């Protein structure tokens, strides 16, 4: 549909699943914008028994992360909209799938650029819940952050293993994906080791938060490798979008509950 030369996608012109994908992309942009505004106006109430200097300020990281995610999803939905405008002129189903696949390879890079910033911020929020003395564990904590940055960057390099016509080059993508995956496993084992060392000192919210972060990162890796399979890449768009919402907003809610002393500890 066109209104004064402005294309407005509908299921009749681009198909129902593409419209569902577009729906989630726009909703994510709104949700992150809303969370950003809420995090700005919500009073920063810190629990009096907080021991880690990072923890009182960790909710600020939610403000930063959701601002970045909101801008990222605005760009993604905008470029996806442009792709739908072109799809409306294509009638062949195979050609439409090619367009979706090639556009995903271009549009998807914005997620990795955002993750390069938001993923380490998520990790810092997670580390704060361990309540470990920074000076004692400085080397391990800084190593975790650097490993997380490298994991995302390696995944981005893998995502960009494309031919001139934007088709995926399988072997190089697999290699970079495996490098990032090894890094992910190392991060998970290190976090688990630090959690055991922290013992009762760690906030009870750490376990749920760690499982959420590890689970969402795992989903990203599954989606990464599924791009090598002959599937509709709209599925990856939808799953990644829902996962981003869960990880960023979900962890933000946990941090807010901890900082406002609404998540009771066992001590």
Description:
This protein is an all-alpha fold and 267 residues long. The protein has one domain: Rhopdopsin 7-helix transmembrane proteins (Up-down Bundle), CATH 1.20.1070. Helix content is 74%, strand content 1%. The protein is built from nine helices and two strands. It has a two-stranded antiparallel sheet. Helix 2 runs parallel beside helix 9 (234-259) and helix 5 (109-128) packs antiparallel against helix 8. The longest helix is centred in the first third of the chain and has 30 residues, at 58-87. Residues 45-56 have low confidence and may be disordered. It is a multi-pass membrane protein. Keywords: Membrane, Transmembrane, Transmembrane helix. It is found in: Membrane.
Give the N-to-C terminal Cα separation: 60 Å
Overall morphology: globular
Tally of domains: 1
Major sheet description: 2 strands, antiparallel
Strands of the biggest beta sheet: in what spatial order?
A: 1-2
CATH fourth-tier homologous superfamily:
Rhodopsin 7-helix transmembrane proteins
CATH overall fold name? Rhopdopsin 7-helix transmembrane proteins
Oligomer: single chain
Under CATH at level 1, the class stands as: Mainly Alpha
Annotated CATH architecture? Up-down Bundle
- Number of beta strands: 2
Number of helices: 9
Which sequence of SSEs, written as H and E, runs from N to C? EEHHHHHHHHH
Q: Level of helix content?
A: over 70%
Pfam families: Bac_rhodopsin
Family: Belongs to the archaeal/bacterial/fungal opsin family.
Transmembrane segments: 20-42, 54-76, 112-134, 141-159, 174-194, 206-229, 235-258
Protein name: Bacteriorhodopsin
